[in-house]
Amino acid sequence: MGIPLVDVKAQYEPLRAELMERIAEVLDSGRFILGPNVRAFEEEAAGFLGAAKAIGVANGTDALVLVLDALGIGPGDEVICPAFTFYATAEAIVRRGATPVFCEIDPATLNLDPVDVAERVTERTKAIVAVHLFGRPAPLNELPDRIPVVEDTAQAVGAMLGGRRVGTLGAAGTFSFFPSKNLFALGDAGLIATNDSDLAERVRLLRSHGSRDKKDFELVGYNSRLDEIQAAALRVFLPRLDGWNGARRAAAARYAELGLGEVCELPEDEPGHVYHKYIVRTTERDRLVSALTEAGIASASYYARPLHLQPALGYLGYGEGALPETERAGAQTVALPIWAGITRGEQERVVETIRAAAAVGVSS
Ligand SMILES: Cc1ncc(COP(=O)(O)O)c(C=O)c1O
């Protein structure tokens, strides 16, 4: 039997009866868009996060675009973000007609480097998009405090920084509930959290064509609504999230316990980290990946080509070597299997396979 990178089914299967019941209720109601489940999920999510407002949207990419729009970001503006992240982070900035300014990462955390961020601020900088990458909180308290921070929390729902949930510390937090995320829907879904009521109101309008009643249109908006079936599923999963994140943290600790650190560099732990991905680092990545593949174990090399080197963003003028730490991380990091239900036996197989590959490397 192979080992996947993430086994989402293992997480929702025990909840099938409850899910089917909630979905049947939606079918019975005949109400599919922005109904009582969406309203209830928004309240429950705001309560869980400790945010004043939460607004459900269609996906995590739209969540970013809507927040940037609501902040008034558009052509001529610069927005600082890391290049070591999923494409959507920068895509949303470009969608608004603004210019992404890529910053370096801290190689120890793989999150944005606040010193480098400060150096890239100009009079045109209108926001910073801080990504809590792979489930690790980004160092928000070290960022310049006069620039609005949008927290891209797609990979870190439930993570904590200084006793508070990430996604509630900046101007707004954006979330994705894509099925592989720590909190997931049964399709695409997203959320925006904020403590700013005016911003929340603008986002609420923007997600539905800039209108409250579909008769009068106050803003040029979007169609980016959360649907009832996704909200109903999210309401089943949300109360389990802290438990699932705890299981991920335990699995991360187990990788260390099993001696994986003797053959590759492990992620440094910190208490608020929720291990959306378990990322190790090695200069021998190709060998490690082929050994895993041969053993039927999935792995992934995320952001091997960082955003500043992506063809669609070539017009920004970054070349190879522009962000050395980012490029090194792109070449040396690899994600290993992790999810809330991964077993000790599965983790032992992963570690044994990597150790065996490393031993071959030493003797050859
Ligand atoms: C860091 C980051 N930002 C944004 C997104 C976009 O979310 P979605 O796929 O829901 O649009 C993702 C999704 O993978 C992500 O990882």
Write a concise synopsis of the structure shown:
The protein contains twelve helices and eleven strands. By secondary structure, the chain is an alpha/beta fold.
Detailed description of the structure:
The protein has helices at 8-12, 16-29, 36-49, 60-70, 88-95, 114-120, 197-206, 228-237, 241-257, 285-294, 324-332, 344-363, and strands spanning 53-57, 78-82, 99-103, 125-131, 149-152, 160-161, 164-165, 172-176, 190-194, 278-281, 333-336. The longest helix is centred in the last third of the chain and has 20 residues, at 344-363. The model has no long low-confidence stretch (mean pLDDT 97). Helix content is 37%, strand content 13%. The protein has 2 domains: 8-239, Aspartate Aminotransferase, domain 2, CATH 3.40.640.10; 242-363, Aspartate Aminotransferase, domain 1 (Alpha-Beta Complex). The protein has a 7-stranded mixed sheet with strand order 1-9-8-5-4-2-3, with helices on both faces. Strands 6-7 form a two-stranded antiparallel ribbon. The protein has 364 residues and is of the alpha/beta class. The structure holds pyridoxal-5'-phosphate. Pyridoxal-5'-phosphate is lined by residues 59-61, 85-86, 88-89, 131, 152, 154-155, 176, 178, 188, 190.
